[in-house]
Specification:
Keywords: Antiport, Cell membrane, Ion transport, Membrane, Transmembrane, Transmembrane helix, Transport. The chain folds into two domains: 387 residues, Up-down Bundle (Na+/H+ antiporter like fold), CATH 1.20.1530; 89 residues, Alpha-Beta Plaits (2-Layer Sandwich). The strands form two sheets. It has a five-stranded antiparallel sheet with strand order 1-2-5-3-4. The chain is α+β, with helices and mostly antiparallel strands.
Length: 589
């Protein structure tokens, strides 16, 4: 029992040490994952801790489960907008780019280290994919703000190339160990089976998560547990059926993360914590597995191999893959540089060890040194390089936070937080529509309920549906194009309030019957809002929105028509807000 308690204490101590030293790493600008690896080295057999970890199958199990969690979370936080922006170049990098990098890196691996060609290709394959965890921390947690298309390309590539590299590594281990035929046809069939199975089971698993979360009645605290359990089950079941479990976990997260889920906010918060724990556990475990005493003998060839990867293989692969796409030279150079290697490379380097490949111990040690060089050299220079290349753009302002509202009747709305930009439409004198009125705001350390006036810098809290967010972005964030903002908020063009609904139906094919055509547009607004009518009030009529554009002494002077409305208005906002205030106990005024 004492030994078990000691093991638990050591694990807890390593985790806490990783967490608290990360504060120093943030201030120093050091890559966090490099820090976690170094903690594992210091605690390992040749370090100060003297912990001997020789159980490689258990280490592989821990790292594999952690990577499945990380990939699932990476897919869960990847929006379909990123795919629309960068799907083609990112998928090209994640497939052809991995193959090109592995092929190019096999040359120096063969001549520098003296491995035969199959083993050289196996080593280069383990180093061919970028690390989603390292990239996530550098770009998101590190606060490096670059152009959306470049960021999306890097994030989608890092999430999708790990499964491709894993498929290649597993297939090559089978070839080297004599478990597969030596022909290219056998390798291609095995790759197709793994990739196809990963896609199929990943999509099915993601849809199953959405159904379970939205249809099964559970205690609120159990939904995150169920989702994470299903993610691990999808990964394991796909592997058992011959597919790529890593690809399945990523796609399941992508499907679930882009669906409407109840308790979505609590799911994201739980996954943030569990993903941090997975990162720490995986990197510290892999650090414990390494043998620093063996590093001096292979330091020089490993450093040369890392240089070949960073300065030759990755850039050539990136420039070739991105040639058909409209990226500038500076953007392609940046994408080539931000190809950090991390835990995936170390995990794949363990595959030949478990497969009994001759010389596999050296493969792991070399991969470890290459990862250390990549994290240190590339990780520390990403921000200065982005600034030098002129790729850093001003940080977006506007939406700060989204939290689901777990109250009856409010399942389709979220509590969103904005910070009012000095160059926003509201700061420029635009009236605040009733559907965008805040419940409260935070200003200079004080909280105000039902505020009458807004000031630049105010932190605004309000309820909104996801479809309203584009309009709220234009209201509270920085205006990029005043004309476009005006059109989205108040319609593409204006008509008089005396126009009839019949005329609109005939012009725009509105789905209304003839019995509903009576009255003018102005009268319809009066029937809906009575005397409580303001500029910005909206009526949603099928494919168009009608918006009160101008008023004088309570009379509507003009009505805007939005031909492609971005939001469905909240009818009866004041009554709705009153019900909410009563429900959550906020004071009036």
């Amino acid at each position: 029992m004492a030994e078990i308690d000691l093991i638990i204490l050591v694990c807890a101590g390593l985790t806490l040490a990783s967490v608290f030293t990360s504060v120093v790493a943030f201030r120093a600008g050091a890559p966090l994952l490099l820090l976690f690896l170094c903690i594992g080295l210091l605690a390992g057999r040749d370090g100060l801790g003297g912990i001997v970890l020789t159980d490689r199958p258990s280490a592989f199990l821990i790292a594999s489960a952690a990577l499945a969690v990380i990939l699932f979370d990476s897919g869960f936080h990847t929006s379909l907008k990123s795919y629309r922006q960068a799907a083609a170049p990112a998928i090209t990098l994640a497939t052809l780019g991995v193959v090109l990098t592995a092929g190019l890196l096999a040359l120096p691996a063969h001549f520098l280290l003296g491995f035969d060609w199959p083993v050289s290709l196996l080593l280069s394959t383990s180093l061919s994919s970028t690390d989603a965890a390292a990239l996530f921390f550098l770009l998101r947690v590190g606060g490096i703000t670059i152009r959306d298309r470049v960021r999306s390309t890097l994030e989608v590539e890092s999430g999708t190339n790990d499964p491709v590299a894993a498929c290649l590594a597993l297939t090559l281990v089978g070839v080297v160990a004599g478990q597969h035929g030596q022909g290219l046809a056998a390798v291609a069939v095995d790759l197709a089976r793994q990739m196809g199975g990963g896609v199929l089971f990943g999509l099915i698993g993601g849809m199953a998560m959405v159904l379970v979360v939205n249809r099964v009645k559970l205690e609120a605290g159990l939904y995150p547990v169920v989702v994470m359990g299903l993610a691990i089950a999808v990964y394991a079941m796909t592997n058992l059926l011959g597919g790529s479990g890593f690809l399945a976990a990523y796609l399941a997260g992508l499907v679930a993360g882009n669906a409407r889920l109840q308790s979505a906010g609590s799911l994201r918060r739980f996954q943030d914590g569990i993903t941090w724990l997975a990162q720490i556990g995986m990197f510290v475990t892999l650090g414990l597995l390494a043998r620093p005493s063996q590093f001096p003998a292979i330091a020089l060839p490993s450093a040369l191999l890392a240089a070949a990867l960073i300065f030759l293989a990755r850039p050539i692969a990136v420039f070739c893959c991105l040639a058909p796409f409209r990226f500038g030279t500076r953007e392609r150079f940046f994408i080539a540089w931000v190809g950090l290697r991390g835990a995936v490379s170390l995990l794949l380097a363990l595959v030949p060890v478990l497969g009994g490949v001759p010389g596999s111990d050296v493969i792991f040690e070399i991969s470890f040194l290459v990862v250390l060089v990549s994290l240190a050299v590339q990780g520390w220079t990403v921000r200065p390089l982005a600034r030098w290349l002129g790729l850093i753009v001003p940080e977006k302002t506007g939406l700060v936070e989204r939290v689901e509202v777990d109250l009856p009747g409010l399942a389709d709305r979220e509590m969103v937080t904005y910070q009012l930009h000095p160059e926003s439409a509201i700061a420029h004198g635009r009236p605040l529509p009733r559907w965008a009125r805040p419940l409260l705001l935070h200003r200079e350390g004080t909280v105000q309920y039902s505020p009458r006036r807004l000031q630049a810098g105010d932190r605004i809290y309000l309820l909104a549906t996801p479809s309203q967010l584009p309009l709220l972005d234009k209201l509270f964030g920085k205006m990029k194009d005043e004309g476009a903002t005006e059109a989205s908020l108040y319609g593409d063009f204006a008509i008089g309030p005396d126009a009839t609904l019949k005329a609109l139906r005939e012009s725009y094919g509105l789905p209304i019957g003839e019995e509903e055509e009576t009255g003018t547009i102005g009268e319809i607004f009066r029937r809906e809002y009575h005397s409580d009518l303001e500029i910005g009030d909206r009526l949603h009529l099928g494919p168009i929105d009608l918006i009160v554009r101008d008023m004088q002494e309570g009379r509507i002077l003009s009505v805007g028509i939005a031909l492609e409305p971005e939001e469905k208005p909240l009818a009866g906002w004041e009554k709705f807000k009153a019900r909410l205030i009563a429900a959550i106990g906020l004071p009036e005024g």
